Amino acid sequence: MTSKYQLIVLGSYNGTETDIIELFKKKLDELKLQSQFYQIVNREKFDQEYRSSQPTFTIYLGNKSGEFKDLNMVKRILNDGNIILPLFTDNFSSEIPNILENQNGLKYNFNELDKIVNLILESFGKLRNTRKVFVSYRRDESSSVAIQLYEALEKNNFDVFLDTHSIKQGEPFQDELWHRMTDCDVIVLLNTKSFLNSKWCKEEIAEASVKQIGVLQLVWPNHSLERMAEMSIPIKLKPKDFSNSNFSDKNISKLVQSKVSQIVQQTESLRARNLAARQDRLITNFINTAKKYGKNMSIQPQRFITENISTNKKRIFIPSVGIPQSIDYNQSSELKSEINRFEVDEVYLIYDNVRIREKWIKHLEYLNKWLDVKTIKTQEFESWLKNN
Q1: CB-based contact 232:217 (threshold 8 Å)
Q2: Nearest Cα residue to 256 out of 237, 270, 271, 269
Q3: Is residue 377 scored above 60 in pLDDT?
Q4: Residue 202: how many CA atoms within 13 Å on its side-chain side?
Q5: Considering only CA atoms, which of 276, 275, 315, 321 is closest in space to residue 295?
Q6: CATH topology for 132-274?
Q7: How far apart, in whole angstroms, are the C-alpha atoms of residue 235 and residue 214?
Q8: What is the pTM of this model?
């Protein structure tokens, strides 16, 4: 039997489940993941199709009247140690059954769709769990809005880089800035009138283009839209998007709450698409280099690369977007044990090392001496594939 990722939908169906499933399928396509390995299970199919041993994420839709459905199925899923996300519209305590009282629920509205689907993909290991955003701006034109967005994104569980808040005293400023940009998922760019007059702002955009980092471009009123990075979504701001229509005072200008919410939502949406593009770039670079040396490489449906060493032996290469972290090593090691049809001889994380600080590169090289999962940086693809 082919192992599949299971998305289970239970509770009070009200149309929300359809929205979630449609967006989930769309994102599978964007991430170039083969849909036949992902199974949608509803209450009618649960007894026949649910497999406790397979990767599972469950959505439970609450009920305002307290008429809770599918509780036996919920109990079984919890006993199996699988994740359940309760969704409610107003009040968790009254809309969600007691059996789920210890689960961390999410207050649902249509704007949360991207967040819900990204949580599912993160649980399945198809998006990294860290959610990193880089705010690019000119201090003398948009400081107050930059701080406002920093706080809003942090509140929505993003790890946000803002130069005035995120670099410790004593750290080399520009090196740390490039390092943090390399590891981010999305750049939120505050495109004010003189933004591109700044040398550093220009370099940040050039860096985003080279590394294919998605840019959410907020274009100030009375300012033209610029062509920025390869993957860029523009939001043209109007005076009414600012409190009291004040968009020119760097110290007190603030966006209205509805616009802030839109920006947070767009950031979440762009994040998944951006990570997919960067993963593709790593895979393509590695595969093309491998072909030069006659390597027998294959891309698997789960978006990792395998190489046949012998009839029953393989080694696997896993693209890691950003800077490899301990969670990447752990998940890669677990993947090795899951591929039981073959003897997996070696596991490697492949990553783009450009602009990563030297002290972190040395740390990864040190780990290579001790861990069963090794790393290969893009700078070494050519030499490594030639000699191994």
Answers
A1: yes
A2: 237
A3: yes
A4: 5
A5: 315
A6: Rossmann fold (3.40.50)
A7: 14
A8: 0.68
Query: Cα–Cα distance between 2 and 122 in angstroms, integer?
Result: 21
Predicted local distance difference test score (pLDDT) of residue 193: 84
Task: Phi first, then psi: give them for residue 9, nearest 5 degrees.
Answer: -120, 120
CA distances in angstroms from 87 to 38, 82, 107, 109, 115, listed in the order given: 21, 16, 6, 9, 12
Rounded to an integer, what distance in angstroms lies between the CA atom of residue 233 and that of residue 61?
Answer: 32
Q: What is the pLDDT of residues 193-217, one digit of tens each?
A: 887 777 777 777 777 777 778 889 8
Whether the Cβ atoms of residue 231 and residue 181 lie closer than 8 Å to each other: no
- DSSP annotation string for 68-108: ---HHHHHHHHHTT-EEEEEESS-HHHHS-GGGTTS--EE-
Q: For residue 226, give the nearest of 205, 240, 199 by alpha carbon.
A: 205
Cα separation, 315 vs 344, in Å, equals 5
- Contact of 235 with 145, CB cutoff 8 Å: no
What average pLDDT score do residues 230-259 get?
Answer: 87
Amino acid at site 6: Q
Report the C-alpha gap between 17 and 43 in whole angstroms.
12
CA distance 4 to 124: 10
Per-residue pLDDT of 66-103, as tens digits, reads 899 999 999 998 888 788 889 999 999 999 999 988 78
Q: Pinpoint the alpha helices (H) of 31-172.
A: 46-49, 71-79, 92-95, 113-123, 139-155, 163-166
For 339-375, give one letter per residue: b (16+ CB within 10 A) or e.
beebebebbbbbbbbebbbeeeeeebeeeeeeeebbb
Fold that domain 5-123 belongs to in CATH: Rossmann fold (3.40.50)
**CA–CA distances in Å: residue 89 to residues 23, 61, 143, 255:** 19, 9, 35, 26
How confident is the model at residue 20, as a pLDDT?
Answer: 93
**Domain layout of the chain by residue ranges:** 5-123, 132-274, 293-387
Token match 């706080």: residue? Answer: 151
In the numeric block, the tokens 């050039």 are attached to 206
Say whether 132-274 and 5-123 share the same fold.
Answer: yes
Mean of pLDDT over the chain: 82
CA–CA gap between residue 23 and residue 104 (Å, rounded): 22
